[in-house]
Amino acid sequence: MKRMTLKTISLALGLLATSMALAQTPQELAIKKLVEPRLGEGTKVDSVTKTPYAGLYEVRVGSDVLYTDEKAQYLFLGNVIDAQTSTDLTKLRTDELSKVKFSDLPLDIALKTVTGNGKRVIAIFEDPNCGYCKRFRKTLQGVENLTVYTFVYNILSDDSLVKSKNIWCSADKNKAWDDWMLNGKAAPTAIGNCAMPNDRILALGKKLRVTGTPTIIFTDGSRLPGAVDVKALEAKFASLK
Asked: Domain 102-239 adopts which CATH fold?
């Protein structure tokens, strides 16, 4: 494989993004027509784009990527790695595809907590029954100057919605969430007509392809899955400067 520096990799990804915005070539359209039926009923190929490496064509299904040859005779599942630099080209591409426009997030349906000056901002998808979320919530106690928007994403069990509604309908929902996630203190049972935006949050998570909790989204649109530690979180914030 031809050696690619980080600069040429960035350029290649830029070219891919540009080509995605343009009409697909007859060759790419032909490949799409051949590949789509082979991926299973109901699977929609969003685009086929020729890559700048190894003569491969990228087949994109949402934010997932696979590859094929120019005649669509073979499908390649897995990551393309630059053997010279050990750069995972597929991961770079899928990270780009999974980016979120932070300003478009409906923060009005998220819980909000602020520590210090709050200048560092993240959004998190969390489930009240998620042990990793609880671990990460404790990690956040060691991070200064942070604003956290929490989307209560009830996907783990039926009981998740019950717990979340009780928290959402509390007098201080932000405190009630922390009480539960940090100390295991359950909120009192919700009464009356209080409703939480569960359907809107589920739709948002589906749209953004959030498949697990916690999922952390940064202001540059990138995301990190799982309960990362303070060191990884601080490194990510440093990279945003």
From this structure: Glutaredoxin (3.40.30)
